[in-house]
Amino acid sequence: MAYTLITANRNYSSWSLRPWLLLRALGIPFTDRVEPFTKPSNYDEFRAFSPTGQVPVLLDGAATVWDSLGITLYIADRHEGVWPGDATARAFAQCAVAEMHGGFSALRGQCTMNVGVRVKMGPHDAPLTRDVARVREIFEQGLERFGGPFLAGAQFTAIDAFFAPVAYRIRTYALDVGRGQAWVDDILAHPAMQQWEAEALAESWREESHEAELAAAGALIADYRQA
C-alpha cells in the first residue's frame, strides 16, 4: 500500500487533522502532502486532485477517497484498530463520529480552529452553549463508560481522531468540558498531536478569512505562532 494524504494548513484545517491523526496514531504509513489555503476559496486549485475541491483527500493507487469520514471508513476496511473491538464501545464511537461529522455547527462557526493562539471569548449564545454542553456530555460518558484514557476505552480509535480538532478549540477558547478535560489534556499530549502542533506553529501562511473569523470570536490574548 502506498497512501498519499493531502491536507491543508496545520493551523486551520480541522478536517485535515482527523485522517492525518488517525493514520499517524495507528502507525499506518503514508506520504504527507500539504496544499495550503491561500485565499478564501481554493476550489479551482483543489479540484485538480479533489472531486469536491476540498481537503482531505486520500490517494491509494488509482483510488481517490475524499472527505474525512469517507477516508476513515476506507482505512477501517483495510486496517485493524480504527474502531473499538468491543461492540458497545464501537457503537458509541461510530455514533459520536457521525454526530461530530454532521453537527456542532455553532462550535465550528464561532470557534474556528486556530492551533497557535488563545482567545478570550464573551458570553456564549444559546447554540454554542448547547454544543459545548453536548461535547462535555460525550467526553464524560465515554470516559466513564469505557474507562479511558481514550473516549472509547484504552486504545486510540476514530472517535479520538474526530474530536481532536475540538481539543484545540477547547484550549484556544477556554471552553469548559468538565471531567472531559482529562481527555483533552491526554490527546493534546499525544506524540502525533505534538507533531501537528509544532508544524502549525512553524507555518508562515496566514489566510485572511480564517484570521477574520478568529477576530470575530473574541480578544486575542496570546499568539504562539513563530512565523
Automatic annotation (TrEMBL):
InterPro entries: Glutathione-S-Trfase_C_sf (IPR036282), Glutathione_S-Trfase (IPR040079), Glutathione_S-Trfase_N (IPR004045), Thioredoxin-like_sf (IPR036249). SUPFAM superfamilies: GST C-terminal domain-like (SSF47616), Thioredoxin-like (SSF52833). Gene3D superfamilies: 1.20.1050.10, Glutaredoxin. CDD domains: GST_C_3, GST_N_1. It holds the Pfam family GST_C_2. Residues 1-83 form the GST N-terminal domain. This is Glutathione S-transferase family protein. It comes from Alteraurantiacibacter palmitatis.
